[in-house]
Amino acid sequence: MGITAKKTAKTDAAPAGKAGKAGTRTADNSPAPDPKAYSMADLQGLKDLLSNKEPKERKRAAKAIYELSDVSHKKNRTIIIKTEPEIIESLCECLLASSGDARHLALLSLNNLSIPSDNKKLIMNNEHSRANIIDALVTIIKTDPAESYLACIALMNLSFLESAVPIIAANPDLLDTIQVLLKDGVKAKAGSGKSEGVRWSCGLLKNLSRSESAATRIASTEIVSALVQCLKAPSGAARWSNNSTEDFALFTLLNLSQHQDVLNDLFRKNKVIQTLQPIARSVVGVHSLKATLTIGILKESTSSEIPPAAGSEVTELVGNILAKKGKEKEYSAGVFKLSTAVQALKGIATKGDASSVATPRAGALMLQIMSSYVLASRESTITDLSPSDNALGVFAAILPSLLEQRVSNVKEATPGTLKAVAEITSLVQACQDLYSDSASKFLAQDVIDSLKEASSLDRPMLIETKRIWSAQRERDGISDSFFSGEVGQEVDTDGPLSFLPCQFDNGSCTIM
Hints:
The chain is built from 24 helices and no strands. The chain has helices at residues 43-49, 55-68, 76-83, 87-97, 100-113, 117-125, 127-143, 148-159, 165-169, 174-185, 193-208, 212-218, 223-230, 245-257, 260-269, 272-281, 285-297, 310-322, 338-351, 360-377, 386-402, 415-434, 438-454, 460-475. InterPro entries: ARM-like, ARM-type_fold.
C-alpha cells in the first residue's frame, strides 16, 4: 500500500528582470526531456551521478530515476531497490544538497520507490538506509514548506509497514516538526504548498497513531490541539472528502482514542468529544462513522453524547469487517480494524442505549467473533483477546433485550430455545476458559447464569440470534452444534477465520 505523489512543475526562479534560460522548459513549464534516454542498465551510473557536484547533473540523474520508476514503469520499482539498494542514500544526499527541480524530482523518486511492500521492508530492514531516509525527509519537512508534503507522503508510504511505525515515530525531531507545521498551516489557503503539508502530515499521523509508543510521544506535544482545530474548518463535514485533512485528522483521533490511558487528559483539555459530537450526528458517511467510533471508545463519553444511530451504524461496520467488504462510496474493505469497531460497539451498548444494538443480527455477530477466537486458540496461542472480550461485553449488555418475549402470552421453552441456550452457554464457557482477566471471567459467568435462568420460557429473539449464528457457521463449514472441544476441529483461513488479517507468508493470522 502506498500513496502516489503527483508530479508538479517547479521552476528555479530567475532573478528579477531577467529571463530564465531558453530551451530548458517545455510549453507547459515542465522540465524539458533529457536528450539521453536512460534505461535500467544505467542505474549504477545514475546512482553515482546523484552525488555529482554539479546541480544540473544531480537533476538529470533524479529525473531519470523518477521516469524509470513512474506509474508507467511500476515493475521497475522493486528491481531498482534490489539491484542498487544504496540508491536510497544517494537520493537522500541529492535532495539535501539540491533545491528546485532536483530536490523535487528526488522526492518524487523516493515516493515511487517507497510504495511497493517489498521495498518498504528492504529500506526499513537496512539500518543505514532507514536512518538516512527518515532524517532526510524530516529535514525537508522542517526546512522546505513547499516540498514538505512530498516528504510527508514518502514517510506515510513507509509507515504502512507496521514494524516501521515505532522507528519513524522515534525520530527526535519528527513530531515537534509536525506540530509546528500543523499550527502554522492549519489556516493556510486550500491547495497551497503549506495546506498540502498540513494535509499529508495528518496522513502520516494517521498511520503513526496506531502505535502506543507513538501515541505516548504525541501526548507530549500540542498535536491533538492542532487536530481539533483542523476539524473546526468552516467548510463543514458534508464537504470533506476521503484523504482530506479533516478525514486524516478524524482517523488520527480515532487511533489515538485506543491509547486513551496516555491521552485522556489531552482529550478532555481540548474538548475532543464536544468537537466530534456534531460530526457524529451529521450522519455524513464515513466522517460521521469515524467520529461515532471515537466517541464510543472514549471512556469519558456519556449516553447523551452518543448519536442515536450509533448502534446500527457500528453493527453494520462489524458485519462488513467480518465479511471482508466495504460500504459503497464510504469505505473499502480493510480500512477499519475489527478491534476498533467492537470496542466502539461495546461503549455504545454499555453507555448508550443498549436497545439500539440489541438485535439478533448484532448478537449473532458477537457470537461469531467469540467462537472464531475460541477456534483460533485451539490452533495457536493468541496474545490479544480484546475483540472477543469486547464482543462478550456487547453480548452481555444486549442479552436482557434478546431474552424479552415481546408477546402477551408467555410460553414455555421450546426445543429451539433450549438448543440456543445450550450452544451459547457452551461458547461462553469456552471463552471463560480463555480469559485471564478476572473481570471478563465474572462477566462470562453472569451471561451463563442469565441464560440458565431464561431457559424455562420461550425466547424468540434468542432463537433468531442462534439461527443467524448457525447460518454463518454453516457458510464457514463449521458443524451445526458448537462443539465442546473434546474433538479438535481444523481451521483454515478460508473458513471461520477468513476475516482475520493474515500478514505472514505461511498463512498464519495475527489478531488485530
